């Protein structure tokens, strides 16, 4: 007599995000992402550094005095401040890819329209609008690149991404050298907008959404598809069946003000449930807008939710433990942005006032931009050997010394050019390591927002010091350089209070409950890989598992009963093998009972 037996169930290999990224490996996929994100970083450099050349080239057409030039230079930083705040926040809400596409489009469109300006005020407004895109893309670019790399290669790729700033500065300087004396400043601005436009197209075609972002937003199946794509492009192979842990991230409730939180004595953040009356009042605040319909009510609901999340984001960034990162990083950003921009953007003016001819000004500006090359090469090596924190500290201190030497350099000879080149070459190491550590210290849920806030604070410093430098230049050529030296020294000291993230996995949440959930799955792949694939997978837990098969494209056998399906390749043969395997196991079981 045959006895009905349950079919054996397959136990998927549960992998954490870090394990899946490491298994997918480093290869052509990361190089493609580096090229596209690097072009975005270069496009930002072009738009920013073209301002310094523009002030010299358009001096007669727009009747620019040092004060009016300072106001023009400052406009792009106002836009970058607003863009950094808004797009950093948007990047954590709608995703890295979509927010970056919009930022690049804004940069390209308004950068190109600047070429049609007929007055100083038109040019200032358009440069401000272009600055929105510039400030918006920087936080998202570094967040996106960091989230595609395993810890072993993240430092190298992040340093190379930051080095693309040099590509943009060389492009800006060379185009200025070739076009400004002959074709004029309008043609130069048009050409300066091309990198952002090209990058926007490449980003849409080649780069997917960050798998880390998809995972924390509860879109684990899509995250798994991205990981499979990384594996295919890199020529590696994820396990035949792998599962991504999926659970509701409590930090999203904290950021949306659906849950209160407290910090314990050890500095860990814990989520608490808010009273039901709070949620009722919050919903009533918008009058049930979405249910009743109406464009105005839906707008009010969206505005209310956006404001709630913005308050939640700011509160999380300024509350322990993240506050211990935010405050020193803010001081470092203010010091480096203020000290660097008030020097570099006025380099053409320094050379001109020291007696250089117009063609020589552009040639010397190109040489200063080229000085980034040795600094970039050194920083790629230093950020993993010396660490991000000490590299930034040492480079900012070195730039401080170089600014003082620039101020004291004789007006004649090669000394001013040499001092400016060394200043730029040393300070670029500070930029690269500061960009990296700003993206790596924050969790995925706040990475773009935290970077955007720091970027915005840096732009405020850039705005103030760039405008102040225009006034100080009327007093003495060395006065802005002394201000830069003080700012760089303060930023260097601030870096010493930060932890070192080199070689460590990125965090996805700042909430301890989420970290505990992640810890349940961390390392489970290595334990599962050595055991049999077959077995019961049954005890329920509070979590779900997004299960993916690289061959048959199945998803959904998991701990919490979660089930989904995604499309895959070559599934039919594998299903037949699995069915035959199950029948054989069932027959063996029945024979054993006989």
UniProtKB/TrEMBL annotation:
PANTHER family: SYNAPTIC VESICLE GLYCOPROTEIN 2 (PTHR23511). Keywords: Membrane, Transmembrane, Transmembrane helix, Transport. Pfam families: Sugar_tr. The lineage of its organism: Eukaryota, Viridiplantae, Chlorophyta, core chlorophytes, Chlorophyceae. It comes from Volvox africanus. This is Major facilitator superfamily (MFS) profile domain-containing protein. Gene3D superfamilies: MFS general substrate transporter like domains. It is found in: Membrane. The chain crosses the membrane at residues 71-90, 99-118, 124-145, 157-179, 185-207, 327-347, 359-383, 390-409, 475-496. PROSITE patterns: MFS (PS50850), SUGAR_TRANSPORT_2 (PS00217). SUPFAM superfamilies: MFS general substrate transporter. Residues 33-503 form the Major facilitator superfamily (MFS) profile domain. It is a multi-pass membrane protein. InterPro entries: MFS_dom, MFS_sugar_transport-like, MFS_trans_sf, Sugar_transporter_CS.
